[in-house]
Each structure stands twice: as C-alpha cells, then as structure tokens.
Structure of CCZ1/INTU/HSP4 first Longin domain-containing protein:
Amino acid sequence: MSRIPPSLLYLTIYNPTLQPELLDPDNEDAEEQAHILFYTAREHAVSRDRMLRQVGLAKALVNFSEMFNAGVPCENVHSQGRRMIMFSPEPNFWVHACYEVAKTPRPTPSSNKSKDTKGKSKAKEKEKEKEQQQSARNVLYDYHDGSVHDIALRTHFERGYEDFRLLHGTFSSVLSGQGQQALELQLERFFTVWAWKWDSEDDNFATHLGVPLHPLHAVLTPLLDKFASTLPDELMTFGLIPPYVVPTGTPKYPLALVRYILARIPPPPTPVPHKKSSGYVEPGPPPAQAGPINTTATTSDQRSTANEGGFAMPIPMPTMPAMPKVNFSLDMKNVKWDWPTYLTFGKGGGTTKTASPIPPSPSTSTMPVSLAAVVDPPQNPQTPEIGDGLRPPAVRRETLDVDTASLLEAISTESMGSYTRAASPAPSALSKSSQLGESGTQSALDTGGNVSPIDRGNSPDGVPDITPDNVHPPTSLPTIDVATRPPRSFLAATVHLADPSDVHTTQRKRVLHLTVLGQQGECTMAIVMDVEHTLDLARLADDTVALIRSMEELVMDQAQKKDQQLPSAAKILQPKDKYIISTNEYTSSSAAGFTSRSEHLYNGQQLLRSGMDVLEVFSRGQNPQHWHIAKRGLGATSDGRPLEGEVFMEVARKETTLTDVDNELAGVVRRFVEQA
C-alpha cells in the first residue's frame, strides 16, 4: 500500500515565566495558558485542554530530565510513531515540536468466509457493513523509524529561530520592547508559514550540514579580500554564486544572512516583446514611393496576425489557387482549376499529369504579397467585379490595405516568432518602437533588461531601405542578449545581527546586494553596514561590477584548464566516490555532488556527536553494498593550524575493501588540507 511521508503534528513556543495580566480565580488554567506564545497544529481545530496537555508534557519531560543531569535538559523523546524535540534558543524560551514518522498501512486480512446466498437477510448485510467500517477505523500501520533523524530535525528548527531573529530580533528584545501581544503577533505571522512549507523528504544529508562553498573558493577568496580591504573596517562583504557562497578570509556574519540573501536574489529577466504602450512613438508620414495605402482598413489576414503583445504586422500569406466562377449549368468534369504547377494530381499512383504553366503575376511572385505591392505597385491593378460574392469591393488582390507603422516595424525586424533567452550571434535589428532612448535608460536599469543595438543600415533617417534584398522570411522574433544587460542597482534590506559581546541581543544592520548576470550565470555581492552609514553607491556599484567580472574571468579560465585534462576511460566508467566535508557550517563536496539520504550517514553523525569520543565510523549496507564513512577531525595545516570539521563519504564500489576505503578517506582529507 502507499507510504505516508513524515509530517509535523504540532509546534509550540512557550515561556514558563510569563504571567497573565489579569488573574481570574475562576479560571484554573489561565496561568498555564499565559505561558503559550505560539501554537499551530495539523488539525485546524484543537481544544484548549489538549493544547495545555501537550505543553504540560513538554515541561514535565524537561524538568524530569534535569533532576538526573542538572543543566542538560531533555532534547528528544522517541515513541513508535512520533519524535518529540525540545530546545531552548534563549533563556526561559522553549521551542517544542512533535513529528510523526513515515508509515505504511498494513493490508487488511481477507475474509475466508464463503459468499452469502441470495436469500441472506438484510440484517446480516448491515452487520457486515458495520464490521467493514470498524476495520477501516482501526487500520494498523508499519512505522519507518529511520525516516526522521534527530540531528536533522533539530537543525531545521534551530534555523527557523535564526531566520526569525534575523528579521525581527530575539524573543527577549521583542518582548521587552514591544510587549507580549506584539511578540505573539510576529510569531504567528512568521512560524505559521514557515512550519508548514518544509518537507523533510525534499532534503538530503548535505542540506542540514551548512551552506556549500564554491569549488574555486580558494582562488576567489583573495579577490574578495582585496575588495573588502578598500571598504571601511566596520563593513562586511561576501559573494554568492547560487547555490554556492564565496566567503572572506575571516567571515563575521551568520549563515542565516547568507540563506536570506540567496532567497532574495532576483531571477534572470525573461525577454518579452516590446509593447506599443511603453515608449511607442508613431512614425512620420509614409514614404511617397509606397503607393496608395489605406490605413483605416485591414484585411482579414492582417487582423488575424495581430497578437496580444501589440503587434499588428501583416504577415505574408501563401497565394491560394484561383477558383473560377461557379455556374450551375457548368460541367464539373471539364472545369480547369487554376492550380499551380506544384499542386498537380494524377489519376494513377505512378503517373501524373502536369498542368500548363501559369505566367507569374504580382500576386504569385516569390516576394511576399504585402511587400511586393509596396515595392513594385502594379500600374493597372485589377479590380474584382462588384457583387461577385467572394470579397468586398474595398479589398484588392495585388495591393493590400496595411498599417504604415506596422509595415515599417515588420520590415525593420529581422525575424518574427517567439523570443528566446539564447544570445544572438549578431546584434538584432529592432524597430524604433523598441529602442531605449535617454528616457528609457533608467527603466532598463531598474528592471535589469537590455535591448540589442539597432541596425540602422545605410538610410539617413535610420529606417532600412525597403528592397527585396532586405526582405527575410518570417522565422522567429529577434533574440535579446541578456548577458550584456546593464548592471542592476543595489537592493537594500534591514536585518538584525547578533551583538558580538552578547549573543542574546541584536543590532539593526543594512544589507546591500547587487546581482550581475554573466556568461557563467548570476553572481551577487552583498555588503553589510550600519543603518546610519552612508556610501557612494554609484562608485561602489562600479567597483562591485568590476569585481564580479574579475571573478567570472577567473572561473572561466579554471573551467578551460579543467576541460583540457581528459580523464582515462577506466576512470570514466568507474563509479564515483562521493564525499562532503563540513567546517564551520560551510560544506565542500565532490565534483559529482552529494545527494545521499542513507541512514548510515545520519547514524554515523550521531555517534560522532554523542560525546563518547568516537573519531571514525565505518559501515556497509546490504542492498546496495555501499561503504559509508564518518570521520571527526581534519588534522592540521602546514603552519600548524588545526582544522575542525567532519568528513562523510560514500563509496559505491563493491570490490572495495576496508583498507581501500580508509586510503580513499585519507586522500580526501589530505587534498582538502592542502587547499585550506
């Protein structure tokens, strides 16, 4: 049967030292209820008694555990189908959550009784239905104990508190500065959304270890340190190349800020067709050589080509074969249809009868019909007979009624179709209506868009000549090179960072971040400063863009050098060993990435952090037979500086022995220490 994934049952935040404003002697639970600052549950309606029992159980577990080990309260409680977690992010404030592990319903036992005969009474039928309903209520489940891990669960809720503190400050500061009602309101707005948007099965083992470092952070960090040296000492900076981070040599900011800026990076702009309503300028009178053009009437073909983006361009339509007038006394077998030579039909499958060639006319030329009428207008246009029932007399066959502005815009555009994000090999020729003049420059900076330069050709007024050589078949709209767009301006945000002298107090800071889209993707630089600090943002933006360009060139050079090193065939076919190294909440993983969800890694991490002085854990699964290694401590650098961290590795080769795995682990640690 289907497996039910793990889910949150309830989450609460309470403070046992709070007292009600007005103590009601008739209400015995008023004091206990005043302790609860926030509560949310999977069930929409939860009684007050049940809420108080859940919070009271958490208090009792914490107090009971402190009786045996003072100062070390209870953190986790396991049952067959649930996991309970309690931790105190601040003095007297507690976060308590209950998670239900994954479960699978057991199949109901099939009934061995024979089918009842048709003469069975209705009472027996009702009794059988009641038994089926009762068995549906008492469904038994098989619980998956390894679907929820204590360390990953605790890390997730600790990050939730850090995100709240980054945006609003600590619980104590909000309670003392704005009051209990304001704190309850902020907790309700933040944690109600945060608690139910997380799916534990979407994360892998590397998610809860930290933010991944860029693979080339060893060569990118010196560039960032050089840029940081030009800024005042109180400013902090770091770089982001999603999903990686490029920290400075001595990072002084919390990782919650890095995750916050990663979530604020705007997505790349999607090129859209330029509409007439934004900066459209009507062109002047049409050229004299364009012939008679009626701007008040359009054909049905032209009306069908007008799209929602504001384009009203006449797209040339293929010439349909002319059909003679229908006469009811006409013998249909002897009618000569005016089919072109390429639309001939034969009586047999192998022989065809070729029709007589038709002399070309202006309407059947290779040039589009709308352009042919403008370039070379006929001297004696044929006018269809009035009242023939086919077309209105105002519509002519050779000279179509077109919109002058739309015609010029269609001619000056290289292609028609859908915009693409790929960069065009040559600058696209855009119409006057899509150019950005002096008034449009600021809007391009604000939106981050870019318009390719216009190809004005040899015409003095900037409009290309209307000649057959310049006419191209409509294929696709001109592409926009988003890689050469002008840099965006700084985006600002206000955050609360912990005071170095007291971790339970925060200071308001301002964060400026700028994102530039290059050939290797997006790159963001963030600068943290005091709220009252002022900087020359224009000059700072230029320096930031220059730094991003330098980092991009360095990344491209390293990528080219890596491409020149061709691996051997045996190395390509051999399964890749995956590893991840965690140091100071930053992670460095193998080139193939680390996306394992193995329970062996979670169990190894729990043993390393159990306080039993465990340094290495080796384990091997049954199906598949992969090795899993966990190691604490990375040794020391060449200058004697110790490196604290953890290494987790997964080896997928069946023939590997314990000695081979140990050698692979030593090689990974040695290469990491050399780069540190």
